# Entry
Amino acid sequence: MHTIKTYNKIAASGLEILAGKGYTVDENAADAQGIILRSHKLQPEEITTSVLGIARAGAGYNNVPVDHCSEHGIVVFNTPGANANGVKELVIAGMLLSSRQVYPALAWAQSIKDQGEDVPKMIEKEKSRFAGPEIAGKTLGIIGLGAIGVLVANSAIALGMRVIGYDPFLSVESAWGMSAAVEKATNPDQVYQQADYLTIHVPQNDKTKGMINAEVLAKMKDDARILNFARGGLVDNAAVLAALDAGTLGAYVTDFPDASLLGRDDVIAIPHLGASTPESEENCAIMAANQLDEFLTRGNIINSVNFPACSMPMTTGFRLTVSNRNVPKMVGQITTVLADAGINIEDMMNRHRDELAYNIIDVDGPVSDSVVTSLQAIDGVIAVRVISS
Ligand SMILES: NC(=O)c1ccc[n+]([C@@H]2O[C@H](COP(=O)([O-])OP(=O)(O)OC[C@H]3O[C@@H](n4cnc5c(N)ncnc54)[C@H](O)[C@@H]3O)[C@@H](O)[C@H]2O)c1
Ligand SMILES: O=C(O)CC[C@@H](O)C(=O)O
# Structure
């Protein structure tokens, strides 16, 4: 049976699924076939040649060396939407915290602890320093209308806000789930210019890194508040600090603070708690465990970030999976090897995504080592697995 190596604290409900199916789950495993992790920044040298699949129990996978995995035919999974509600709730809290100055107000209240009977009088006298606007009637701008962005949009509408969102790759699922009251921007500037609150919910990648920079900040209202529950690298912290110092930005709420952001009343620094709820942690762990099990035991790919979705029920007791570069004549060469070995294909699925393709082939009998060697020898084939039930 397979071994799964874990990094970070993965919810027991997910690990129990794997243990219940006979997997060995071990944070010290040396030659695991699967890895489950959360925010651990996985290095290529930590991925042994035994690894077939890696499941990120969460949405963002910029801590996994995906290109390296693709080169070696390792399938990387994430758990879309599984922690979206946890993040949404903290985003709403972040808007309220930054608006009503809850953070400096609480700190001040604690600071007068030794003032004895004067405390109630001081509170009434000083409270006006911490007044702040309500969010109802204000405009929330959202960049990225995926699992989290849509939930935030719908909740903000329910709280009486006007919501304008931008997502050039809006999925059908997001469109179905989003309130019709959400206004669709055709470019991000429309969002930046109108937002009283701006929240970003996009993945961090080469195209989005540093997207909130001095140029964007210059387009925003002077008292706008920015919320970043996506990734630290999306925001240019130096530009944010300069805008806060210049009084051209109201506040910055971030789940990804670095040292430069700490110790200020106008920065609400949260230690990456967006998905730290029992519900989100369990949802992510269960989804990650089930996807890894489906892949390791049946070769089915669900919610991969580098390979195409490809799954079908096992029609025979003998299955082959082949990953290959997405170039012409691969299927022909693979099926020829099987035909030459007298192996009959009962069912087959071939899917591709960008530069990679994946084949599930159910055959009528055992596949010998020499057939596997012939398949591996085809130029463009990355990995071959034999699975039998
Ligand atoms: N703070 C936390 O604990 C926490 C938890 C979950 C997710 N996250 C982060 O939030 C991100 C979003 O999570 P999600 O579950 O909503 O992911 P998702 O994949 O469901 O949604 C991301 C959306 O961003 C859109 N997008 C991509 N590039 C864009 C661009 N340049 N401009 C506008 N939209 C763009 C996509 O089309 C997609 O709809 C994750 O990638 C992760 O980094 C953080
Ligand atoms: O595992 C976590 O706590 C954070 C997960 C979050 O950053 C994500 O991208 O899903």
User: Anything to note?
Assistant: The chain has three domains: 1-83+275-307, 134-269, 308-389.
